[in-house]
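User: Can you write out an input/output pair for a complex, sequences first and structure second?

Assistant: Here is one pair. Inputs:
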Amino acid sequence: MNRKIVLAIATASIAAISIAGCSSSTTKDPDSTGTPAPQGDPVTLTYGVWSQDDTMKALIDAFEAENPGITVDLQVNPWNDFWTKLQVGAQGGTAPDAFWMLGDRFQVYAANDQLLPLSDTIADAGVDLGVYPSALVDLFTYTDELYGLPKDFDTVGLWYNKDMFDAAGVDYPTDQWAWNDVATAAAALTDSDAGTYGIAAPFNRQEGLYNTVAQAGGTIIDNGVSGYGDPKTQEGISFWTDLVAAGYSPTLEQFADTEAVAQFENGTVAMYYGGSFYAQRFYDNADLQAKVDVQVLPTGEQRATVINGIQNVGYAKSQHPEELKKFLLFLGGEEAAKIQASTGAVIPAYENTQQGWVDAMPEFNLQAFIDEVPYGVVYPVSADTAAWNSLEDEYLPPAWNGATSVKDASDALADAMNDALANEGD
Amino acid sequence: MTTGKGGAERLAARCPPSSTSRRSRRGSIGYAFIAPAIIGLLALYIIPLLTTIYLSFTETQPFGGSKFTGADNYERLVRDPQFWESLRNSATYTLIVLIGVPISIVIATCIHNVRRGKTVYRVLFFLPVVTLPVAIGMVWRYIFNGEFGLLNQAVAAVGIDGPSWVADPNVAIYAVSIVGIWMSLGTSIIIIGAGLQGVSPELLEASSLDGAGPIRQFFSITLPLISPSVFFVSVLSVISSLQMFDLIYVMLSRGSQAETASQTIVYYFYEKTFLEFDRGYGAAIAIVFLLIIMLTTTIQFRIQRRTVFYG
């Protein structure tokens, strides 16, 4: 190889590598909404979701049958791509007309006028908001304007492995359990020789510390101020770190290798604080169906569970706002709720339709998730939730490892989080 | 391009200077021919580069729109400990993966000297190159699992208690680097192998007549002759290592401490730009990163002048 050739190849390859680097970050959007249809012509709406394909298709079929002239295209993007694509789409004017929204992402979209305001539509249609859990309606209200109707909700329950309880001779959890019952049972269920643990105590928000913090009477964020400095909040965190320190739970490293829910599924841990959304996954596994069940969360100072849910919202720049409103009202209605309940995919948010979900999996005590709704606390959010979520990721794990005390970690987090919250207005 | 233009001018000089319009038409035909390349270059390189430079001086809003903030992003960058840590991780990864170069020289030499089945060995070592990096990452993730992984089962057999390779924040970057070396071997072996075939047998024969043993032959004759290939391979290795993203993305759990402790500069860029949508800051990271790659490549070419022998 002579020198010139080497240089030429090197340059070409550098160029090629840089192109490859660029192209992977370019977002392509093949399924854009298309041109606006003239009046009277059939209208096509797009609906962006990240899962539950079959149930969503059933919903669309029912809607199309009732509304001739409107067709709905389902766009399914997996969770990891969904939010990136949505944000880029919203920026470029190609976001789906209707799409799923979560509480922790909602405020950014509402504050930047990306969502279709629905208060008037809902009032005109005579929808009674009392049919939805009030925590969910609050979660999707921004400066007194409502931007969506609740699709479904999830609460957190104590999933447990009956076989492991039987083997250790421990009584199953009851609805009377308190925090100390968890620790006692976890101790009896832990068998270090066999490598099994009483409970999974991962660093988890919705299914973990947010529940116990509320049960201890603490807060994550209250009136724009971090609650992590509150001793009660810190008590709610210690619930988990104590379990890890006592050796009743795998460590964070072990959870990084094999996620907590998988360790519950493979019988490494006997108890798992998990969402109602796992019901179908456990149920579809014949082996697990026979040996796991669920109970309401054990009580601390008070009873509490995080309640969270998906909302159907509309894109503010939709070409067909009238048809879109119709579709959103349908998705929030009773018929749509019943269709979702019957497939067992999720707990529908509409009042008195949840029984269908409970009945879909009679082997599990799913009523527990419904019983928790009255004391459900709303998932904590602010205008820029992501900013302090990443601070939680940074400050709290050392408390799980025992590298710092819960108090030191939480106090430091409170300061950093308050700084971030102070910057939100900018 | 220069020779072409010079040719045209010489041609024009010989012809009578009858019409200037004819000359400019020739020029425009030339431009028409290079237009596809130039347009591509502008659209894919120059404009994005200039946009990125501009963006790096702005603060971007979540849904488009930005305001000029001067050098704020760069000041923030200098004071951002996570940025420095990601730089350190990229440097660590790049240096470790460079170990792949001597390893591939050894393997390429071995393959060059086997008598039968050269192709089989080449294919075996080249397979990782044509396999999806994501698939490779997934498989290695299982191999490295602290409790059930193949690797720890194997070392447990000789009584060693292996670490949680991809979950321990102190170990993860090395685990990822090992896979990086393994992935880079294929291309390096092929290129160095091609260099070895260019080494003339006469030289080796002459040296053995002079009494040089195989080791001496390798260091005094073969290595200088294949040094252009070695140089080329190491430039490629450094550039692709600096740009490493996929292995971290696939092998380390999202949100785990191992991920935070091991993120590379490109990963940090991705996190800021596409997860937190802080595009102005992301652009500043990209610009600094571009300068770093340019700098390292320049340094490599400087070193090359002293060490690489072009026969």
